[in-house]
Structure formats: C-alpha cells, structure tokens
Amino acid sequence: MFEPPLALASLSGEADADWALAGRNLAGAAFLGGIALDEPSRAAARDLVARDRQEFLPADPVAFIDEQLSRVAAANRAVGPSIRPGINVRTTTAEPLEAVAERCRAYDAICELNAHCRQSELTAVGCGETLLTETDRLRAFVASAADTGAKVSVKVRAEVDGCALVRVAEAIESAGGDAIHIDAMDSPGVVARVADATDLFVIANNGVRDRETVRTYFDAGCDAVSVGRPSRDPTGAIMRRVAAAVASEVGASGENPANERIVSDGGTNRWVGR
C-alpha cells in the first residue's frame, strides 16, 4: 500500500499537506485530517473547538480535501521522494464520504474512515468509536467508499467496551475495505489477532517510538506502523529513530534506487529504507 511501511498518523487541526510533505523523506504515507464532513460531525467539531481543541473546519470540506491532495500530488511529481496521502474523515452519513472517496481515487490517496475518536461530542452524534459497536453502519460506510474504487482504511482503537476488534476487521474486509489502522492502546496482541484473521493491510499505532516497539508490532504481523503525536515534528529525532528501525526491520541495502530514503537513527547507524 505504501513504502517504506511507516505512516504519519492524523493530528486534528494540524495534519495538512505541508505536514505530510515535510515527512516524505522518512515516511511512505501521511494521513491528513481528521476532517468532519457532514453537519452533525461539523457541529461536534465546533463544540470541540469551543473547548480549545484544534480542528479543521473549512467552509467546504470536500473542496478543502481536493486542494490538499492536489498540493501533495504536485509536490510528488516535482522532485524528491513521494509520499502517499490519506484523508482521515468523520461522518454520520455516507453521501459526503462517497464524494471524498472519489477525490481520493483521483489522487491515488487512501480514504480513511475515523472509527477511533472517543470525545463525547463526536460519539454523541454517532461518529468515531461509536462505529466499532455498530458494525452494520460501519460496513455500509466502508462499502460506499470502496464502491468508488478508492483504497479504504478504517482507523480503530482497541479496548472499547462491547467491541470485538477481530469481528470489526472482518466486517471491514467483507465490505471491501483494504486496510485497518489500529490504535492498540495497551493491547498490542490485538494486532496479531487481526493480522491472523484477515488479509487487510494492518497499520499498527500507539507508542511507536523506537526499535523495540517497531519490532514488537512487526513480529505481531503488521504491514506498517504509524506515529501519532511525535509526528508533529515529522523530521525530528523520534521520527528519524523510528524510520531507521523500520528500515532495519524490512531489510537494508547498499544501494539507493529512486524513491528510497537514506535514514539515520541519529547516531552512526544508517539504513536505506525501501
């Protein structure tokens, strides 16, 4: 789905095209957003802003997404390593999700449905982790996005009451989804269970900071890892350390063909990440 198998995870109100492009020397993908699409989710986002949380609230979310993806695509064509963009979105209805998925398909971006956020403002209107216990809705949303031909991921979290994450993953796969982006919380074993149960592309998230955590997730069977809050500095020490660890896990080479990154852990060790 993307190489190297390291992603920048969405940061509400912060993860935009400039952020994604700043990380393209280290990461293979960047999930922009999250972006609220329909009026209930946008009203919830406004309530979050009222209590000092950063949120994207463009007048036209689909036009904003198109502009952001266009900027990433133009930079990818111009020079340097390319990075695959994803868009993390929240919605209570399928129609705007379909429109975003169409734009993702046009730009070869990943459409990522947010079934992860747990703020009460979002769950009250049926967004975020609410979808983890409403698998019929989740399946319908994934199918509506996948039917456009876009690559579809779902961002989920472990340790949600009433949620069997393997069953959620199976629902995503049966609806035509391509990937599951797992915030493992304090349950890294869930990554192995999902990887064993499905053929989804598994992105492991939570606490990815160094070679030990990278190895733990890859040993569990993930296809990629992602970094959340430390990606606020997409070229900082933590990102460099994780990129070097990922490169070491997936294999090193003495060559540097087009679109490969030379990464360093900040010391004397350097790897070429495919």
Please tell me about this protein's structure.
This protein is α/β, with parallel strands linked by helices and 274 residues long. It has one domain (6-273): TIM Barrel (Alpha-Beta Barrel). Helix content is 39%, strand content 19%. It has helices spanning 17-22, 39-50, 61-78, 94-106, 120-123, 135-146, 165-174, 189-197, 211-219, 237-250, and strands at 6-8, 29-36, 84-90, 110-115, 151-157, 179-183, 201-205, 224-227, 261-264, 270-273. The strands form two sheets. The chain has an eight-stranded parallel beta barrel with strand order 1-2-3-4-5-6-7-8, surrounded by eight helices. Strands 9-10 form a two-stranded antiparallel ribbon. Helix 3 (61-78) packs parallel to helix 4, helix 6 runs parallel beside helix 7 (165-174) and helix 9 crosses helix 10. It is globular. The model is unreliable at 252-262 and 267-274 (pLDDT under 50).
